[in-house]
Amino acid sequence: MRFVVALVELSALFAVAGAPVSRAVADDANTCMYRIGDEQIAACTRVIQSGRWSGQALARVYARRGIAYRAKGDLDRATADYHEVVRLDRKLPEAYLELGLAYLYRGNLPRAFAEVRQASEFHPMDPYGALWVDIVGQRNNLPSRLSEVISNIDMTAWPAPVIRLFLGQTTPAAVLAAAADPDPVKQARQVCDADFFNGEWSLRSGAKDEARRLFLLAAGDCPKNFIQWSAALEELKSLRASR
Length: 243
Prior knowledge:
Blueprint: H1 10-17, H2 23-34, H3 38-50, H4 55-71, H5 75-88, H6 93-106, H7 109-122, H8 127-139, H9 146-149, H10 160-166, H11 172-178, H12 184-204, H13 208-221, H14 227-241
Helix pairs in contact: 2-3, 3-4, 4-5, 5-6, 6-7, 7-8, 12-13, 12-14, 13-14
């Protein structure tokens, strides 16, 4: 799981709508759920304005639009949509993570930590949540609790090598080597993770040039609906500002 908000089946959305839906409404729901970019934003907006959905289904529509806004770098609109997600479905951990990272890259570190911690508490077995708690906690000058929470995490599966890196038990080179996989799609996603989190480790270690190189790789290769992609862009923006 890479903290892309889980999609509901379109049939579930239509069930919430109640009455049969038109082809146009079905097309908008499909575009909102499965596309990216401006087309997705427009379709999600029409779904929201239709008034046909509520509760968890509507929360996921806001989540999809929030992800699209975040990918465009529009953190204000993304944050507003994530707040709607939390209002409609308070137990969706991905929304808290998205909200936390929006606050992180807007410079509100305490609020960012509170939100990512909430995400991890809702889903303690998720390794990505644990990694983000560690990253945001370190920026708040808080002690790491990663060694304490790994008992909840499957350390035989990816991204366990990334966690070991953050525990000081391995190297960035070993993480990248471990990302190799016979499945090219899986390997591409794991290399995305390796580049981004190796970049975070380099940044933490004070190696800004190496961090910049790795974030550039992640920004170029990660899928655009992955948090790592937009986070890499934000980290590059911060590195440029710090020069």
